[in-house]
Each structure stands twice: as C-alpha cells, then as structure tokens.
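[agent] plan:
  1. take the single chain provided in the ticket
  2. run structure prediction with default settings
  3. attach structure tokens to the ticket
  4. add a short note for the reviewer (M.T.)
[agent] executing step 1
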Amino acid sequence: MFNPLKGMGELNELRKQAMQLQNALKQIVIFEEKGRASVEMTADMKIKSVKVSGEEMNDLRDCLNDAIEKSQKKAASKMQEMGGGLGGLLGGGK
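[agent] step 2 finished; step 3 output follows
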C-alpha cells in the first residue's frame, strides 16, 4: 500500500540536510588577493568584502552579490524546467 506520508518524511529530511549544508557553507570563508584587489566571500557564494588598494568597495560588493543571487535563481529555475534538481530544497527558484 502506498503511504504518501512516508514521502513527506523523506522530503523533510532532504530539506533538513540541504539547510545543514547551506549553514555549513556560510561558515567557510575564502580570501583571494590579486594585485591591488582582494575579495572575501563565503562558500555559499556571498561576498563579504571587496577592496581595491585597501579601500572598501561596498557598492561593488553589493552589485556582485545581487548578480550572484540572480544567477543562482535563474539556474534553479532552469533546473526546475528541466525536470528536477534541488532548487526548491536549497531555497532557489523563488
């Protein structure tokens, strides 16, 4: 006999695991420096700081974060169109 509640439990577990992964990625910080420019970002693709010659570039940081967020939403939407993916589980596509 088919039990639809079993599927919901598995879906909730997948969502829980996705959220744990997302939280873990927020804790990983990457720092990159090339010439006069430096960038600090988390592994969940959020830019924490952008500096050029030691000067904070907050407008550039915000612009890059917006572009990354839009690209992630478009990628999640495309994955949904193509029949699946984890876009909804990972908070994308909306």
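[agent] step 4 note for reviewer: The longest strand covers residues 29-34.
[agent] ticket updated
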